[in-house]
TrEMBL record:
Gene: rsmH
Name of the protein: Ribosomal RNA small subunit methyltransferase H
Annotated residues for binding of S-adenosyl-L-methionine: G49, G50, H51, D69, F95, D116, Q123
Gene3D superfamilies on file: Putative methyltransferase TM0872, insert domain, Vaccinia Virus protein VP39
Family: Belongs to the methyltransferase superfamily. RsmH family.
Gene Ontology cellular-component terms listed: cytoplasm
Amino acid sequence: MTVSAPEFIHETVLLKETVASVLNVTVAALETGTIKKTGTFVDATFGRGGHSRLLLTYLDKDSRLLVFDKDPQAIQTAQALAASDARVIVIHDSFAKLQDNLQRLGIEQVDGIMADLGVSSPQLDDGSRGFSFMRDGAVDMRMDTTRGESVAQWLKRVDETVLADVLYNYGEERHSRRIARAIKQMDHYDSTLALAETIKQAHPNWQKGKHPATQSFQAMRIFINNELGDIDSFLDQSLMALKVGGRLAVISFHSLEDRIIKQFLQKHSKGQYPEDANLPMPPKRPKLLSKPERVAPSDSEIKTNPRARSALLRSATRL
Ligand SMILES: C[S@@+](CC[C@H](N)C(=O)[O-])C[C@H]1O[C@@H](n2cnc3c(N)ncnc32)[C@H](O)[C@@H]1O
């Protein structure tokens, strides 16, 4: 499903696979067109609503779909959808505030939660958002432009060593120290292209087909949006938020995100021993999730949408 709004397009990744997963049916069953479910569902990352729009076609009129996004432009698109579909409830907030928002709305638990992590194509394609090292714009990179500090503001005040740690920890950038030094020597941070060029010049090891600023830009974006911290709290809250039998389906785009999701699903699908138990044979914790499933995009999806290349869908059922 391709959705444009207003001038940028987001090609949804693992569309049918994610919707089938959150509804607990197979893609083949989805394609019969006979599925109609009732319930309350969450799209934690609305974006341009590709997953939400398809899910809505399988929900009856009494169902509800709560859609979250941090991004004001995504929220504008979600509000337009809600204006024509009363089942849609729009929440301009981080998915890390899942429980707060459910409580505020008087919703105890939900039947399914899906999340498609990271940035959308419109965020990357609009140079003025500052996410891209290919298009010039202010060095911003905030998903929620209505609050918080931009990367430019942060770069002005951050210590070189802290910057290097961020580049290393969130970008797995091996040359973080020399890149951090070069960035801190810049006079101003008002151009993504200038920042990308500085990183390129400082980077000693250019790889074919990959801009040398790729990992540093990813690191600054993850840091400024607290992306990994948000995923941690969201996953923890999803256990409380899901009804027994409810489904959790999460798409990641890089190894740092995927590691968190994989470890979370593994931990809760195995009975764990409490770490502080002092007993010779401590009682097992109940399993909270079923054995996790993993789906990667098909070759044909990757061919038509190269962004799908690194996507991975992991899912499980609340027990
Ligand atoms: C890959 S896009 C989702 C695309 C969507 N599935 C579609 O088909 O249009 C990710 C979206 O998640 C949003 N996002 C990222 N982190 C978030 C968070 N912590 N809370 C809420 N939204 C977040 C981004 O602003 C972006 O719009």
